[in-house]
Design a protein that fits this description.
This protein is α/β, with parallel strands linked by helices and 364 residues long. The strands form two sheets. The chain has an eight-stranded parallel β-sheet. It has a two-stranded antiparallel sheet with strand order 3-4. α8 runs parallel beside α9 and α16 runs antiparallel to α17. It starts with 11 loop residues before the first strand and ends with a helix.
Length: 364
Amino acid sequence: MEDLFTVFNKPKVELHVHLDACIRPETVLYYARKKQMQLPCYKELESFQKDVICTKPGSLTEFLSKFHIFMPAVTGDREAVKRIAYEFVETKAKEGVVYVEVRYNPHLFANCKVDPIQWNQERGDLTPEEVVVLVNQGLKEGERDFNIKVKSILCCLRHMPEWSPEIAELCKKYHNDTVVAIDLAGDEGLKSETFPGHLRAYEEAVRCGIHRTVHAGEAGPSSVVKEAIDTLKAERIGHGYHTLEDPALYDRLLKMDMHFEMCPWSSYITGACDPDFTKHPLIQLKKDGANFSINNDGSLSLGASLERDYEIAQNDMGFSKEDFMRANINAARSCFLPKGEKKELLELLCKAYGRKDFLCESTE
């Protein structure tokens, strides 16, 4: 596939992107019309994009509210779930991504619901396991057709701890087919340690050798990052911007070579960081030689592809081509591929970059 990037027109690795946040608008409208859904924004593409795309800084809650507009069109639909996964791979191939880890919560695609008072679960037309199978099929067919390697991460949701043990079991059953890790996302005001379901899921992941990442320090304080590391045994941190508010914790994570999954444009739209990109934590991470990657988070409601994040890094944060190469090498060495496949990925990047020294550094 042709790489449509102009900023960094070389192979890239992306570790933090949500499948449900990357659905093509045309795909949403197709299934909305097929189901004869009546929201005004379903009538034409322009009005739909106006309703779902965030264009200025707000809050994470505001950003997530957009999902209530487009997800009903595709949830519980077998054809839609597989198509979304397949189209995601095609999009990433066009962006020049050679390896991506895409994350999602299977219960949401299955259209499961929970009564927030009684915690009674209502199952949708699909089971969460059927969703995983369908996504796997779409991803594998995309790999075959677009010459890209794709793995998936299953997300637990902070406000739905009853689902987490099932997520852990699905991670175990589909380990490396295509699932490589477990994640925890959602309202960081809900401490994971107060919800046994999350703790059990992560303890089981540790016991079974399932890799672990956690959304932390995005909208929440640095204490959430500390909890992710010490309680949930996270191997990577999703976002982690507010880690820098605790110098001792930040220094500790630098020494641990902890990987930060950075999403510049997303951090602007969700109000996670100062809207002035010249004050973004990513600049400090680069200065300190931290282990981080550059990611999109999700293109639909953000109204931007991965290239926007690279443009911001270059134009507002002073990133050079070498900085981008190092970020992608860091992403490759911190990815959740098995050891042999990770080595192949690193060799592919170093050959494409013409930098054998990076391969030496990555294996030290």
